[in-house]
């Protein structure tokens, strides 16, 4: 019987959220504190009986951190960041570099153009590294970045990825990503027919 009364007080905890500067509230608070001491003891007794109440929040925290780490290591760009700085299809149409855009025939090499002058290999690794499993020696060896900084090929890069699936995913997610205020044009590489690339450039006005 003694413990039944304070339990009703426990439901009145909502009143704690009221914050005012009126001095009379202080008196009410001191009265509540006495009642809360009682309710605290009942809570301790209740929780002792129902120990399962405690692990629930901690297990949720673990799940959240696992989901975050499940994404991609922080040394590479996140999917959220890619989506945030990527042009929409409508925006791409306004840029001449995306005129007559074709992804090309799928393979494990990617061709990137319209890169800003200040782009470095580490920038491309930061973006395309998310498509490589660095724990696998084979995938690490397949990952290759060739950034052209001189001559006619300036502002272009070739990136070798572990497989066609990784390359297709990279193309889908990175094409139109704005790096140093310039949208990247990502296509499957056509190393076998380099002459067509130069003709294609002439066709674009």
Automatic annotation (TrEMBL):
What is the designated name of this protein?
A: RNA-binding region-containing protein 3
Biological process according to GO: mRNA splicing, via spliceosome
Care to name a GO molecular-function term for this sequence?
Answer: U12 snRNA binding
Where composition is biased (Acidic residues), the residues are 64-73
PANTHER family reported for this sequence = RNA-BINDING REGION-CONTAINING PROTEIN 3
Keyword check for Nucleus: yes
In its UniProt entry, the species of origin is given as: Crypturellus undulatus
Which keywords appear in this protein's UniProt record, sorted alphabetically?
Answer: Nucleus, Repeat, RNA-binding
Query: Where in the cell?
Result: Nucleus
One GO CC term, this protein: U12-type spliceosomal complex
